[in-house]
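Subject: Peptidoglycan bridge formation protein FemAB

B.,
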Amino acid sequence: MSCHLKPITREEHLRFVAARPSVSHLQTPAWGDVKPDWRSESLGWFDERGELVGAGLVLLRPLPKLKRCLAYLPEGPVIDWDAPDLERWLEPMLAHLKRRGAFSVKMGPPVVARRWSAEAVKTAIADPAARRLGDVEPTEREPGAEAVAERLRRMGWRRSEPGGEDGFAAGQPRYVCQVPLAGRSPEQVQNGFNQQWRRNVKKAEKAGVKVVRGDREDLKAFYELYVETAERDRFVPRPLDYFERMWTALTAEDPDRMRLYLAHHDGEVLAAATMLTVGEHAWYSYGASTSRRREVQPNNAIQWRMMCDALELGASVYDFRGITDTLDEDDHLLGLLRFKVGAGGRAVEYLGEWDYPLNKVLHKALGLYLSRR
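Prediction pasted inline below.
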């Protein structure tokens, strides 16, 4: 099949997204509005009949003092990744982005490679010989994933190296944790929790924790807890206006694209979290909590409420987003993996992010710069 690629309108892009069961929230037109330091463009692939058969949101980051930019398609583009002629999809994209001044292209194919059941992850954590999730035999393998990876290598794409020492990639996570919801009732989902999770949900209910939906004005309460969480967990918090921009952009595109939840107990907000939804996919996006009164389990309560609401919205999966692939007991992120898998989540490995240098000198210089930050 020959593909013709050209920029498309937001309306065309949104109609394409709405017609699909699952598209990453990072591949919706509104996500470009969340990133003011990047220029955004919606790209469309058209078949011989002129029908829109693929779409992608590309973010363009200009280099200071140079008329060149980095092109990034987070968790995209949304094309036929099973196509044997993948070159016909990606080569027009590379040619277009080169004309737009891109010196390097980064993308994240939404292609699943392997899955591990909650029980398999639990067993791996308990195995002293297991160091990384990727080294453990998966519960499921997607047969076409390695073929896609091989096609990309032959075309000159190279998988991005993970950044840091915690198993997370420098861009979007390669490993995530997902709770399957399709065809399940709330009772069936809760039955998939481990004993600790079920006990904590009941404890929160008995203690009188109330989880409510918030609006834009409640982002300030969320942010206070978020800053406290950042200090406790030693990460650099995003500014408040980032979340306000997210709220404005995403809810303008769809009122249910972004939701805010707050867990109250005795008149105090103890935890807050955001949930994003596109089609049948719901994501836990950002979470925040105070160290006070943790014994009433507000975090479990808020997650359970979001899962129930995701079910009501018709979601087939509740996505906890990134997890570490380390199984080292001394790693501080292992507790986060235990928490997410405890909700009956499966560990899912995607193909990861891939780079294509359109200008090898600038691409290498950028790599050196990022490695020294």
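The longest strand covers residues 52-62.

T.
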